[in-house]
From TrEMBL:
Residues 10-205 form the N-(5'phosphoribosyl) anthranilate isomerase (PRAI) domain. This is N-(5'-phosphoribosyl)anthranilate isomerase. InterPro entries: Aldolase_TIM (IPR013785), PRAI_dom (IPR001240), RibuloseP-bd_barrel (IPR011060), TrpF_fam (IPR044643). It is an enzyme of class 5 (isomerase). It comes from Lysobacter brunescens.
């Protein structure tokens, strides 16, 4: 008998306590705090620590980096106490694994796209991967999607789909890709860093609608 599927949901780029409260009320699995220097959604470790303290039990906190130095990563870990790390830059496995926490590695699928056929070899300690629409060297959160058919069919770890997701397309995205999880930022915002409660609710509802079709009674 096939196991029932439940698509995990991560809301990323949270900067306000009211958005954390809505995310928790909607039952998302994780929220992301961005520390990438070029991001419009960047928060300080002190700001993120306050947001982290407002999370409900069983809601994971994810610290997102992009080519930050090791001292910055350690400062965030000490101050915020995240559940998981997420790396979007040119970090190698040794760097990502050096901090003693599980990590996700983002794979840039925009532009010519990064190599995705040997992820397990290049990142043997990764807990999972995130396929995003940004091009190599660019920040995420652009609001643009990529060609989902380019996702490798034999990814060795659980993986999340990101890039251009919003309430209007997440149902189709899950049905088309059978992704383990979805990661959304700009698609649930009114302006960068400020989430829209109605968009957040609609996004979760459509994820659950896709799961309900995949798990008929």
């Amino acid at each position: 008998m096939p196991l029932p599927r439940r698509t995990r949901i991560k809301f990323c780029g949270l900067t306000r306590l009211e958005d954390v409260a809505v995310a928790c009320a909607l039952g998302v699995d994780a929220v992301g705090f961005v520390f990438a220097e070029r991001s419009k959604r960047r928060v300080s470790p002190a700001q993120a620590a306050l947001l982290r303290e407002a999370l409900d039990p069983f809601v994971a906190s994810v610290a997102l980096f992009m080519d930050n130095d090791a001292a910055t990563v350690r400062d965030v870990i000490d101050t915020v106490r995240p559940t998981l790390l997420q790396f979007h830059g040119d970090e190698d496995d040794a760097f990502c694994a050096a901090f003693g926490l599980p990590y996700l590695k983002a794979v840039a699928m925009g532009g010519e796209g990064a190599r995705a056929d040997d992820l397990g070899e290049r990142y043997p300690h990764a807990t999972g991967f995130l396929f995003d629409s940004h091009a190599a060297g660019q920040a995420g959160g652009s609001g643009h999607a990529f060609d989902w058919s380019r996702i490798p069919c034999d990814c060795p770890r659980p993986w999340l789909l990101a890039g251009g997701l919003h309430p209007g397309n997440v149902f189709d995205a899950i049905r088309a890709t059978q992704c383990w999880g979805v990661d959304v930022s700009s698609g649930i915002e009114s302006v960068p860093g400020e989430k829209d409660a109605m968009k957040m609710r609609r996004f979760v509802e459509d994820v659950r609608r896709a799961d309900a079709i995949a798990n008929p009674a």
